[in-house]
Amino acid sequence: MIPNLVQAVTVGVLVGAGVTLLLERSLTRVLLGVIMLGNGVNLMILLGGRSGAAPIVGVTPESEMSDPLPQAMVLTAIVITLGITAFLLAVGYRSWQLFGHDEVQDDLEDQRIMVLAQRDEVTRGDEPVDEPADEPDDDGEDPEQVPGPAGPFTRHDGTGPDGPVGSGRSGGGGR
Fold first, then answer.
1. Of the candidates 105, 102, 82, which has an alpha carbon nearest to the alpha carbon of residue 28?
2. To pair with 73 at 20 to 30 A between CA atoms, which of 21, 105, 124, 135?
3. Three-class HEC string of the chain
4. Calpha distance 11→22 (Å, rounded)
5. pLDDT (tens digit per residue) in 98-127
């Protein structure tokens, strides 16, 4: 089977729309993007195979058999897409329970880099080092640590799931 223009355009639209939705901040749109991208890639794989009769040895002549490999690959891809869809649904539901929305928040390190970039400054890790490379750093600070509250469930307003971060309650403190 030679793919026609309609099938090729369908693959292009599904993949393009899927990638566009993957770049959104809403987990619902990301989920729809994964589904559309998966369907577009599955259709593309199927269009790459040879069509024909059922690939059963002894029943169909070998020259008339369809290629079973794309069918097996698509079946595997459907199962993988189903697993990713279930995972994203669980993440979206959990995000909705914790925060009341399904938007992906900015990472604290990304926010710090954006602020420094706006001020046209460099971070401490980007500055040249005057001491020899074989000597250990004696200041005791970890340059990878983000200052301030950075718990896994810290909201933009500085509160965690159990109240304000640093209030003595468990569950929302720093690292």
1. 102
2. 21
3. CCCCHHHHHHHHHHHHHHHHHHCCCEHHHHHHHHHHHHHHHHHHHHHHCCCCECCCECCECHHHECCHHHHHHHHHHHHHHHHHHHHHHHHHHHHHHHHCCCECCCCHHHHHHHHHHHCCCCCHHHCCCCCCCCCCCCCCCCCCCCCCCCCCCCCCCCEECCEECCCCCCCCCCC
4. 16
5. 888 888 877 788 888 888 888 876 655 555
pLDDT of residue 29: 93
Closest CA to 161 of 106, 107, 92, 100: 100
Select the more confidently predicted residue: 158 or 172: 158
Q: 77 Cβ partners below 8 Å, 6+ apart?
A: 38, 41, 42, 45
